[in-house]
From TrEMBL, chain A:
<protein>
    <submittedName>
        <fullName>ABC transporter substrate-binding protein</fullName>
    </submittedName>
</protein>
<feature type="domain" description="Solute-binding protein family 5">
    <location>
        <begin position="71"/>
        <end position="448"/>
    </location>
</feature>
<dbReference type="GO" id="GO:0030288">
    <property type="term" value="C:outer membrane-bounded periplasmic space"/>
</dbReference>
<dbReference type="Pfam" id="PF00496">
    <property type="entry name" value="SBP_bac_5"/>
</dbReference>
<dbReference type="InterPro" id="IPR030678">
    <property type="entry name" value="Peptide/Ni-bd"/>
</dbReference>
<dbReference type="InterPro" id="IPR000914">
    <property type="entry name" value="SBP_5_dom"/>
</dbReference>
<dbReference type="GO" id="GO:1904680">
    <property type="term" value="F:peptide transmembrane transporter activity"/>
</dbReference>
<dbReference type="InterPro" id="IPR039424">
    <property type="entry name" value="SBP_5"/>
</dbReference>
<keyword id="KW-0732">Signal</keyword>
Automatic annotation (TrEMBL), chain B:
<keyword id="KW-0812">Transmembrane</keyword>
<keyword id="KW-0472">Membrane</keyword>
<keyword id="KW-1133">Transmembrane helix</keyword>
<dbReference type="GO" id="GO:0071916">
    <property type="term" value="F:dipeptide transmembrane transporter activity"/>
</dbReference>
<keyword id="KW-0813">Transport</keyword>
<feature type="transmembrane region" description="Helical">
    <location>
        <begin position="274"/>
        <end position="299"/>
    </location>
</feature>
<dbReference type="InterPro" id="IPR035906">
    <property type="entry name" value="MetI-like_sf"/>
</dbReference>
<feature type="transmembrane region" description="Helical">
    <location>
        <begin position="133"/>
        <end position="156"/>
    </location>
</feature>
<dbReference type="InterPro" id="IPR000515">
    <property type="entry name" value="MetI-like"/>
</dbReference>
Length: 536, 343
C-alpha cells in the first residue's frame, strides 16, 4: 500500500514536470536592472539607474541624439533655427504628440509650448511653484548653469518656442538632448496642484515616451505598458519589465534561466561564462565615461599639489586595468575618453614611478601620511568594482609608505554621506550624458559644480573655468579641441583627480532578442527591442 | 479542555509580552534617534516629533511608555520603513503570503514524502533498503541548507537550464494579487495566460520548496520510522496480527495514527530552525517573502523593518507551536489524560 502511494505521488509529480515543458508567454521584455530608481523624473538626479528607468522609456526630449552618428536629431521639436549671434534658438514643435493616460490623469489636449515652458521654467526659475517640489534640486542643470544661461523662454504660439540665452553656448543643443532635459505635462501639473499633491508629478510619472509607467514595486520590479499613441515608431513589445536585481551574479543567473532577456552591468569576471552559453551574447561599445580618483583639494594635506602629484605617480594604472576591468577598458590619459571628438592622445599624464612619488612627498615634507579613500559599493559603468580598485591603490600606496583607509557604505547611504562629509578622497567617475566634450568638464570640475556637489574634488580654478567658457562660446570644432586640450593640461598640472580608465559599455542579452542599442552615453532605451521568442 | 486552552492562551500572551518587552528595550539601543527608531520618520518635523512623542508617551515614565508602545504595535501600527517611507505593516502583509505559501508547500512535501518513506523504512525486512533510507536521511539532515540551495540552483538552473531559480513567477505575467498566494492567484486569474502563468509559478516553486523541505523531510522519516518500530512491537499490534488483519490495515488503522503523534510533536519543536532555514532559502532564491525582506532591512539598517519582521516571525512561531501542541494534546489519548488529572 505504502509503495503504491509513493508510486502514485511520483507519477503525479512527474506529470506536472512534463506539463511544464512548453508554454506561451506574453509578448514582452524583461530587463534585469541593478537598483531602485530614486524618482521617476530624470531632471532631479544624475544617477544612471534612475536615468535608465525613466528617461527613454517614459519621456521624450525636444531633440535627441542619433545613437549611431552622435548627431542631434529632431524629437518633440520637428526643427529648429539658431540665430546668427547664437543668442536665441527657435524650436517648432510637433502638433501630434499625446501624453500618457493613467487612472489619475486623462489628458484633454496634445503636447504644446506650455509643456515646454513648464518643464524648463520649473528647473530655472526659483519662484516657479514647482521649483521646490523637488527636494534634491536639479543637479545636472545646476552644474551646467542653465539658469544663468537661459534668460527667458518665449512662447510664440502653441507650437513654437524661443529660448533666449544670455551668452552663446556651443553645448546648449547638446544639453537639451541629454537624458535630463525631458518634457512633463503642464496640464497634469495643474491638476496635481489643485489636488494639493504636487510631489506626485515625479512619482506617478506622465510623459510622452514609448512606454508608460504601470506599476512600481520597490526592490522588486517596475512594469511599463506600451504607449498606444506614441508619436514615434511604435515600440515593439506590449510590456516592458525592469526586474530589480542588485547582485550581478544573480542577474547573470536570471539571464541564463531566461527570467531576463537583457541584463545590465555584467562584472568583467563573469564574461568568460558567456562563452559557455550559446544563448547569451555580450554587446559592447567604447563608452563615453571616465573612472577617476578625486582628491578633496580643500583639505590638508591634499590641498598641496606636490602631495597630489606624488600620489599620481604611485598608482599603477595598468595593474588596475588588468585586475578590475580585465580588458574591458582603455587606460585614461586625461579626462576625455578616446571616443570623444575632442580627444587627443596625450602623454603629459604622470607615469607610474614610486621612487619619484617618494621624492615628491619628501620634498613636501610629509611623513607617515594616512588618507581615507571612499569606494562605491556598487558596480557602475565606469568602474565595475570600486572596492577592488581601492584595494589595489591601497597596496600601491603602501609601497611609498602612505597608509590608506578604505571607507564604504551601502549605495544610498554612500552618496548621502559623501555629499555631507569631509572626505579625503573618493573613487568615483562620470558617465557622459551627451557626446559634447564640455560634458566631461563643466559638470564635474567647474567652480559652479563645487556648489552643486558634483565636483568631487571641490576644486575651483579660475583659469580653467575661463577656458571652458571660451570653449563653449565658439562653434568651431578645431578651436574647441585646442581649448579642451589646454584644459586637460591644467588638470595634468594641478591633479585635482587621477583619471584611471575609460570602460566599455557592456550589456548582456539573450540571442533571441533583436539588436539592442548600447549607446556610448546616456541611458538605455528599449523602444526598438523585440524578443523573438513566443515558445520557450 | 477549556481550562487547558486558557492555560495555553495564557502562555502565548506571556511569551508575547516578553517578546514585546525585548523589542521595546532594543528600540533604545539603535544608533538612531528614539523617535526614528519607533516611527521610522527619518528627519521629523517639529509637529511630527510632537505627534510621535504623544503616541509613544515618550515624555512619561518607562512603564507608561511600554504600554503606549504595546498599544501602537497591537493596533497594527509598526511605523513606516526608514528606507521606503511606506507603512511597515502594509509591506509585511504584502510579503507574508509568499512566505506562508513556500513554508506550507515545503511542509506538505515533507509530510507527503516523509511519512510513507518512514513507514517503508520501518516495515521492510530488506536491509539494503533500510540502510539506503537511513543513509539518505542522515545525509539530508547534515547538508547545510545554503549549500544545498546554491548547488540545486547551479545544477538545475544554470547547467541544465530546466528550472527557474529566482522569484515567484516570470514578471511578464501580470497577476493581480488577490490573496498573495501566487499559485492560488494565478489559478483564479482571468488572464488569457492563466494556465501558463500557473505552471510558471509552479516551476518557480519547485527548487525553493525542495530545498526547504529537505530538513523536515529527513526528520519526519526518522521519527516516523522509530515510532513505527516501537509501535509494531506493542501487544495490541500482535493481537491484531493474531486476529488475522492484513498488514495494510494494521499499519494504516492501528499503527500509523499512534506513530504520527511524535511526528507532530517534533514538527512543533522544529518550527524555529524551520523559520531560519526559510529565511536563508528566501534569500538564495530571491523569494519575495518576509525573510528576504527582513534580511534586506538588516543590510539597509532599516530599524522599523527589523523590529516589525522580528515581531511577526516570532509571533508566528509562537502561535503555530502552541497550536501544534494543542492539536497534539487533543489527538493524543495519553496526554489527554493529563488534561484532567491535575490542576
Amino acid at each position: 500500500m505504502s509503495q503504491f502511494s509513493i508510486r502514485l505521488l511520483c507519477f503525479t509529480f512527474g506529470l506536472l514536470l512534463i506539463a511544464c515543458g512548453q508554454q506561451k508567454v506574453p509578448s514582452g521584455l524583461v530587463y534585469c536592472s541593478e537598483g531602485n530608481p530614486e524618482t521617476f523624473n530624470p531632471q532631479l538626479v544624475t544617477s544612471g539607474t534612475t536615468i535608465d528607468a525613466t528617461s527613454h522609456q517614459i519621456y521624450s526630449r525636444l531633440v535627441d541624439y542619433d545613437a549611431q552618428t552622435g548627431q542631434i536629431v529632431p524629437a518633440l521639436a520637428s526643427d529648429w533655427q539658431m540665430a546668427a549671434d547664437g543668442l536665441s534658438y527657435r524650436f517648432n514643435l510637433r502638433s501630434d504628440v499625446r501624453f500618457h493616460h493613467s487612472p489619475h490623469f486623462i489628458p484633454t489636449r496634445v503636447f504644446n509650448a506650455d509643456d515646454v515652458l513648464f518643464s524648463f521654467n520649473r528647473v530655472i526659475q526659483e519662484n516657479h511653484p514647482y521649483h521646490f517640489v523637488s527636494r534634491t534640486g536639479y543637479p545636472f542643470f545646476q552644474s551646467i548653469g542653465l539658469d544663468k544661461l537661459v534668460r527667458q523662454i518665449e512662447k510664440v504660439n502653441d507650437y513654437q518656442v524661443i529660448f533666449h540665452l544670455n551668452h552663446a553656448d556651443a553645448s546648449f543643443l547638446a544639453n537639451l538632448a541629454t537624458d535630463f532635459a525631458i518634457i512633463q505635462s503642464q496640464e497634469y501639473a495643474n491638476q496635481l496642484w489643485k489636488q494639493k499633491t504636487p510631489e506626485r508629478i515625479d512619482s506617478d510619472a506622465i510623459g510622452t515616451g514609448p512606454y508608460q509607467l504601470a506599476k512600481y514595486v520597490k526592490n522588486d520590479h517596475i512594469r511599463y505598458r506600451r504607449h498606444e499613441f506614441y508619436w514615434g515608431p511604435a515600440p515593439k513589445t506590449d510590456v516592458l519589465v525592469f526586474d530589480i536585481t542588485p547582485r550581478s551574479s544573480r542577474r547573470l543567473a536570471k539571464l541564463i534561466t531566461g527570467d531576463c532577456d537583457v541584463s545590465a552591468l555584467p562584472k568583467a569576471g563573469e564574461l568568460p561564462v558567456i562563452n559557455e552559453h550559446a544563448e547569451l551574447r555580450l554587446e559592447q561599445q567604447a563608452g563615453l565615461n571616465v573612472a577617476y580618483w578625486a582628491f578633496n583639494t580643500q583639505k590638508p594635506p591634499l590641498d598641496d599639489v606636490r602631495v597630489r602629484r606624488a600620489l599620481s605617480h604611485a598608482v599603477d594604472r595598468q595593474n588596475i586595468l588588468r585586475a578590475v576591468y580585465q580588458d574591458t577598458a582603455v587606460e585614461a590619459t586625461g579626462i576625455l575618453p578616446p571616443a570623444s571628438w575632442a580627444y587627443q592622445p596625450n602623454d603629459s599624464l604622470s607615469d607610474y614611478n614610486p621612487a619619484k612619488a617618494e621624492a615628491l612627498l619628501k620634498e613636501a615634507g610629509i611623513k607617515d601620511l594616512a588618507i581615507d579613500l571612499w569606494a562605491m559599493p556598487v558596480a557602475r559603468t565606469y568602474n565595475p568594482n570600486a572596492l577592488k580598485t581601492a584595494e589595489l591603490i591601497q597596496a600601491d600606496l603602501a609601497n611609498i609608505g602612505v597608509h590608506v583607509n578604505i571607507v564604504s557604505y551601502d549605495w544610498s547611504v554612500f552618496t548621502q554621506k559623501l555629499n555631507q562629509s569631509d572626505y579625503d578622497s573618493v573613487l568615483i567617475g562620470w558617465n557622459a550624458d551627451n557626446s559634447d566634450p564640455d560634458n566631461f568638464f563643466t559638470p564635474t570640475l567647474s567652480c559652479d559644480s563645487v556648489i552643486s556637489g558634483s565636483n568631487r574634488s571641490k576644486w575651483c580654478h579660475p583659469d580653467f573655468d575661463q577656458i571652458l567658457r571660451l570653449a563653449t562660446a565658439t562653434m568651431d570644432r578645431s578651436e574647441r579641441t585646442e581649448l579642451y586640450q589646454q584644459a586637460e593640461a591644467i588638470l595634468a598640472e594641478d591633479v585635482p583627480l587621477i583619471s584611471l580608465a575609460h570602460a566599455k559599455r557592456l550589456a548582456l542579452k539573450r540571442t533571441d532578442v533583436t539588436e539592442t542599442r548600447v549607446t556610448p552615453f546616456g541611458g538605455i532605451s528599449f523602444a526598438d527591442l523585440k524578443p523573438m521568442k513566443v515558445l520557450r | 479542555m477549556g481550562k487547558y486552552l486558557l492555560r495555553r492562551l495564557n502562555l502565548f500572551v506571556a511569551t508575547s509580552l516578553v517578546l514585546a518587552g525585548v523589542l521595546f528595550y532594543t528600540t533604545g539601543l539603535f544608533p538612531v534617534d528614539r523617535i526614528t527608531a519607533l516611527s521610522g520618520i527619518v528627519s521629523p518635523s517639529p509637529a511630527q516629533v510632537e505627534q510621535v512623542t504623544e503616541l509613544y508617551a515618550l515624555n512619561k515614565n518607562t512603564p507608561l511608555q511600554f504600554s503606549a508602545f504595546l498599544q501602537q504595535r497591537l493596533s497594527g501600527d509598526l511605523g513606516i520603513s526608514i528606507t521606503s517611507q511606506q507603512s511597515v505593516s502594509q509591506e509585511l502583509m504584502a510579503r507574508l503570503p509568499a512566505t506562508l505559501e513556500l513554508a506550507n508547500v515545503a511542509a506538505l512535501l515533507a509530510l507527503v514524502f516523509g511519512v510513507p518513506i518512514g513507514i517503508l523504512a520501518s516495515l521492510t525486512q530488506h536491509r539494503l533498503t533500510q540502510h539506503a533510507i537511513m543513509a539518505m536521511t542522515l545525509t539530508g539532515y547534515s547538508i547545510p541548507v545554503f549549500w544545498l540551495g546554491l548547488t540545486l540552483s547551479l545544477w538545475f538552473g544554470v547547467h541544465l537550464g530546466w528550472l527557474p531559480i529566482s522569484g515567484q513567477i516570470n514578471l511578464l505575467y501580470e497577476i493581480e494579487p488577490v490573496t498573495g498566494f501566487i499559485l492560488f492567484d494565478t489559478w483564479v486569474s482571468d488572464s488569457e495566460y492563466r494556465m501558463a502563468a500557473f505552471l510558471d509559478a509552479l516551476q518557480h516553486m519547485i527548487l525553493p520548496s525542495i530545498t526547504l523541505a529537505v530538513l523536515p523531510f529527513t526528520v519526519v522519516v526518522r521519527i516516523t520510522r522509530s515510532a513505527m518500530l516501537n509501535i509494531m512491537n506493542q501487544t495490541f499490534i500482535r493481537a491484531a496480527e493474531a486476529r488475522g488483519l492484513s498488514t495494510a490495515k494494521i499499519v494504516l488503522r492501528h499503527a500509523l495514527p499512534n506513530a504520527l503523534i511524535p511526528v507532530l510533536k517534533h514538527l512543533g519543536i522544529m518550527l524555529g530552525p524551520f523559520a531560519s532555514y526559510s529565511i536563508i532559502v528566501e534569500v538564495i532564491f530571491s523569494w519575495p517573502g518576509v525573510g528576504s525582506w527582513l534580511v534586506s532591512g538588516i543590510y539597509q539598517r532599516d530599524y522599523t523593518v527589523i523590529q516589525g519582521g522580528i515581531l511577526v516571525v516570532a509571533l508566528l512561531i509562537m502561535l503555530s507551536s502552541i497550536l501544534i501542541e494543542i492539536v497534539h494534546t487533543a489527538t493524543n489519548p495519553i496526554s489527554r489524560k493529563e488534561l484532567y488529572a491535575s490542576n
